[in-house]
């Protein structure tokens, strides 16, 4: 499973957050696309519309388990996808911003 560290991510990298709605609402990475794992197959078209055509999809969840499943599925579909190791827990711990939909400071559930 291709994996990257949070510290390897650069501003502007495409980020797909597969956590559930309550987790997203508590706080997320700004600019991330949110498609919960429980809705992922039904909403797959949203990803193909939003993702860069020749770019990489960085998949993130709380700790890395759910995002690994989605990244593996995407790789099987021919998408250049990687799992973000440690997920939003490591994202927040490394000082990266976590925000709410209103742009206020958020937290990781």
Brief sketch in words of this structure:
The protein has helices spanning 21-26, 44-50, 65-76, 87-93, and strands at residues 3-4, 14-17, 33-34, 57-60, 81-84. By secondary structure, it is an alpha/beta fold. The mean pLDDT is 96.
Question: What can you tell me about this protein's structure?
Answer:
This is Rhodanese-like domain-containing protein. Residues 9-100 form the Rhodanese domain. The chain is built from four helices and five strands. It has helices spanning 21-26, 44-50, 65-76, 87-93, and strands at 3-4, 14-17, 33-34, 57-60, 81-84. The longest helix is centred in the middle third of the chain and has 12 residues, at 65-76. The model has no long low-confidence stretch (mean pLDDT 96). It is an alpha/beta fold.
Instruction: Indicate the radius of gyration in whole angstroms.
Output: 13 Å
Shape: globular
For the terminal residues, how far apart are their CA atoms? 25 Å
Q: What's the tally of helices?
A: 4
Major sheet, described briefly?
A: 5 strands, parallel
What is the spatial order of strands in the main beta sheet?
1-5-4-2-3
- Give the overall pLDDT as a whole number: 96
Number of strands: 5
As a percent range, the share of helical residues equals 25-40%
Order of helices and strands: EEHEHEHEH
Q: What is the beta-strand fraction?
A: 5-15%
Alpha-beta classification: alpha/beta
């Amino acid at each position: 499973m291709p994996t990257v560290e949070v510290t390897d991510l650069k501003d502007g990298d495409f980020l797909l957050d597969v956590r559930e709605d309550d987790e997203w609402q508590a706080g997320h990475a700004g600019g991330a696309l949110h498609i919960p794992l429980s809705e992922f197959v039904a909403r797959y078209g949203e990803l193909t519309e939003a993702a860069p055509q020749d770019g990489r999809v960085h998949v993130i969840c709380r700790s890395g388990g759910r995002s690994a499943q989605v990244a593996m599925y995407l790789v099987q579909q021919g998408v250049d996808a990687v799992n973000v190791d440690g997920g939003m827990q490591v994202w927040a711990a490394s000082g990266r911003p976590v925000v709410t939909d209103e742009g206020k400071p958020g937290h990781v559930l």
